[in-house]
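Interim report, section 4.2 (structural modelling).
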Amino acid sequence: MLRTLHARLALALLGLLLPLGALFAWATLATSQRYFQELTQEINRELAANLVRATPDLMVGSSVDPRAFDALARDLAMTNPGVEVYILTETGEIVGSSVPMDQLRRKQVALVPLRRFLAPEARFPVFGTDPRRASGEKIFSVAALEPGYLYLLLADQQRDSVIRTSQASAALRLSLWGGALLLALAFGVGVLVFYLLTRRLRRLSRAVSAFQAQGFVLQRPLLEAEAAHDELGQLQRAFAEMAERISEQVQGLKQLDSLRRELITNVSHDLRTPLAALQGYLESLQVRRGRLSAEEEAQYLQAATRLSQRLGRLIGDLFDLSKLEAQAAELNLEAFPVQDLLQDVILKFEARSRESGVRLALDCPAELPFVRADLGLIERVLTNLLDNALRYTPSGGEVRLSARLEAAAVALGVADTGRGIAAVDLPFIFERYYRAKTEPSDGEGAGLGLAIAERIVRLHGETLLVASVWEQGSSFGFRLPLA
Ligand code: ADP
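Predicted structure of the assembly:
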């Protein structure tokens, strides 16, 4: 039970309130006793003086008349049973006592309290020597004799406790009960307040446990309600944010894992077909060595070379794509002039465009500001786009590579007058392995070129856009920020 914060706080409160209660009880008892002493002394202030007046024969010259003293002590014992009577010399020495002299532990009474008592502005209670005890003091009443003092010790030990009990039975008991009730109430309110304060913590702890039980994947937000703006609220918000991040990361990891599996499956499938064909050609060359014509041999070798090139490209593409998809490819951002890049790319495709009878045009102003991007990766994007454009544009068509300045960016575009992309294919062309329905299944491409280009542009924080009309041509475009 003591494992909860709430229980611990309640226990701490109890630990605080109990001594407080004891202190209150002690203070109540002590003040009530002191009040009683003050009252008793005040009431009996004139007692000694009255006795002196009522017993004029108490002193015979400078000594006490034993008979008169005994009579006085007897009378007093009857009317005020708890009172002790002493006759003191001027120096405070006890010369007469209602208590047998051999029972006295002290024979000398301090004079200072007596003087304080006799002073007109005396403040009670004033405590005087209790001769029956080696130490300790009691309230008293005193009057001057000629010479010495009549010293009356009021209420003895026994009577004190009787008084205390009688007090306790009435007002004192009421006050003690009141105090106890008040403390109990404070405890109750404290426990309730702690309960309310720790309720949010408990809710948070339950939510975190549930989050853990769900394998650190959030099905819904960690906290349903908006957190308050106090420290607990901050903690709740921090936890909610943390849970969201962890959930995202766990999901990302899971996704990556399934992607990796899928990739391995796809890769093995993609590689197997060209590899089998390559093996076929090589085996034929080996088995039929000497029986093939030079022309056939050259044909087989050419096919094998093409297949091995395709395999190499495929492996490269797959590797690049997996790297890009895992976001592992770190951008190597640098400032460079776009014109130079476009020139290089055009050069790369010039021969091929001439061969296929497609006009390759460059549409780029002479002066363009530098852009900031990963040069190598952007070249890859343009290469993939141009490669596709040339592949899908028949002889006599045109492929146009363009660049122009826009607000704070340079917009790059690759447009062709080729066969275009059917509307049914358009939404999917950036997906991995997606090839248009019209494509022959054993064609050159593996459906990776656009996926790679799109990932690269996305890594730059931009979007690769496409517009295409079937049998009219396609155009791809993206922007690069200025350096
Ligand atoms: P592939 O390597 O098979 O060409 P891509 O990812 O580069 O794969 O392209 C996906 C599909 O998009 C292609 O199969 C093709 O049908 C279509 N496509 C891409 N670029 C063009 C284009 N310029 N003109 C027509 N179709 C295109």
